[in-house]
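User: Fold this, then the next.

Assistant: Folding the first:
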Amino acid sequence: MEKKSVQQEQIHDLLFNKNIDWQEIIYDLINTEQLDPWNIDIVLLTDKYLQKIREMKEADFFISSKVLLAATLLLKIKSDILLNEYIKSIDEILFGKKEDKKILHEKIDFDEEIPELIPRSPIPRLKKVTLKELIESLNKAINTENRRIKREIIKKNVLHETSFLIPKKKFNIKDKIREIHLNLFKYFKNNEKGEKVSFTEFIGKEKEERIFSFLPLLHLESQKKIWLEQENHFEEIYIWLKKNYLKHNPDPFTDLKQELN
């Protein structure tokens, strides 16, 4: 009979696509276990919460990540209660204690002996935990953790997408400039009819080599050794020896020189 009831609940949840969230579980446990919402037994609530998750798992219910995260936070609060004599606040357990500002006190010397101060009432061993405080603290902790996870995912995706841009081996930039400049002279010497060469044809298609070579080419252009030409953004770049470019093309700075004169 019980098994049949569980199956009916599963069919109902599948039809209406209802995912039980962590707040519902806590509210249900408060009612069924008749816990005082103004003074919750965290130890009992945590044990019953974990038991509820096990039952849901056995019944093949969908368990969201937030439900599991709430379980870990409840366990953290429970362990703190069991290990310490008292708790000051749930936020302090979940987010750590804020450092108090140190205040320097002036020392005062007394001639007579100071009598021992004895508190009139005993210090409470355990602060009462209300349902409102528990829900708000758990909700804040879950949202904080979700934001942290999202940041980590974005960071990993960025690193993954840009990993090919990071060279895996070291190289000497001066040696690379000399190497490219020498190879360009050799190329045009062996190809006398060639006025220019494309970046892809000269450097190749290997990503790492293209990265290594681009900066040296920019340096050679700034030193007026070569001329780089690109008609439109993201299109092929063509490499000229500067003297060859000026032979076949008008001086690109003619208009600027006339304006300055």
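Now the next one, as you asked:
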Amino acid sequence: MEERKKRAFQWLKVYACLLLVFAAVLAWGPSEVKAAAKLSAKKLMLSEGKTAVLSVTGTKAAVKWSSSNKKVATVSRKGVVRAVKDGKAIITAKAGTRTFRCTVTVKTTRWEKLLNKYKSYASVGQLVFVRYTGGSSAVVELYKKVSGKWKLVLSCSGEVGQEGIGTASEYRAVTPKGVYNLTSGFGIADNPGTKMKYVKVNEYLYWCGDENYYNQLIDIRECPHYCEGEHLIDYPQCYEYGMFFDYNKKNVYGKGSAFFLHVKGNSGYTMGCVAVSRRNMIKILKTCRKGAKICIYPY
């Protein structure tokens, strides 16, 4: 009799434990299912033209997507978000009775805007970015258009004017900020293989700083006068290889002259030009074609 009581008591303990476990499952299950359903991101930062994929997990309900501002960002039926232009938009996902939201901020950098702008220009196949980082330092990047898309083919350190970048003039060591055409290669050394026009420097060539021929390349034999501009052959290191760009193409006297992309000297800065290593200058010359541009801005 005692043995049967003992066994009955043990079974009661087992049943009690099972009931507790079952009750815990019932209490835990619904809240867990509710908590598991979620959106993959609550915030997104994109630049113009870029995409990201959102998804709702933890539910089998069909998801309906919408955007609060399709001019800023759109969303497909599969949750693919595409940035259209700078601004903010709320992407909403409705799954059954639940609603999820993601804030999308579209902010395109100046450099991305330049790449987007010139992507459709058939005449522009190369872009040289001069990203000014402070002092007389910059990061110089070379992009080449390949099958209609920009490809970064070079990134290196560079030097700019002793006084940085900004509004240039004849009287300041400032590199001009803006976008300019790379018009020609030049150098004291022979053409290293550029497909652009290449000017072989000789003793008669000056970049003139005088009012009559201001900011122009002249041959002193054709424009005889005492020239106070740069006698290019006097700078064998810097002007071994270089490229002219068309800052102050209207030749406004005093606005600044003789701004080039060239080989670095030994000072750690320039008087307003942009300088890179000899090896990188040669690579830029070999890559660039007519229509290439140089873009100079803060990083």
